[in-house]
């Protein structure tokens, strides 16, 4: 479970829960097959499909120096009907 960082709770991700789709941020170096294997092994579910996209890092300014945060990857995991994942702990800010 090192590849999965935390679950994402946005309006869209909550709407997707009705379609048995779960959203979470993962390590940017993880592959789709690794994430699928981890989810199926850890939660004991069957994954039908996985969609992913890479989100860019945000710009951050510290005085005159402009920096940026790291980019990250978000996965939308679709499960077979009848399976579900218990809610993961959301990242605290």
From TrEMBL:
It is found in: Plastid, Chloroplast. InterPro entries: Nucleotide-bd_a/b_plait_sf (IPR012677), Ribosomal_uL23-like (IPR013025), Ribosomal_uL23/eL15/eS24_sf (IPR012678), Ribosomal_uL23_CS (IPR001014). One of its GO terms (cellular component) is ribosome. It comes from the Eukaryota. Binds to 23S rRNA. HAMAP family: Ribosomal_uL23_B (MF_01369_B). Part of the 50S ribosomal subunit. This is Large ribosomal subunit protein uL23c. The gene is rpl23.
């Amino acid at each position: 479970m090192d590849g999965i960082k935390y679950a994402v709770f946005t309006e869209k991700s909550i709407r997707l829960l009705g379609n048995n789709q779960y959203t979470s941020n993962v390590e940017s170096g993880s592959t789709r097959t690794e994430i699928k294997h981890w989810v199926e092994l850890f939660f004991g579910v069957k994954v039908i499909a996985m969609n992913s996209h890479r989100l860019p890092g945000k710009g951050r300014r510290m005085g005159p120096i402009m920096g940026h945060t790291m980019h990250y990857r978000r996965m939308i995991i679709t499960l077979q009907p009848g399976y579900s994942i218990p809610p993961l702990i959301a990242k605290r800010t």
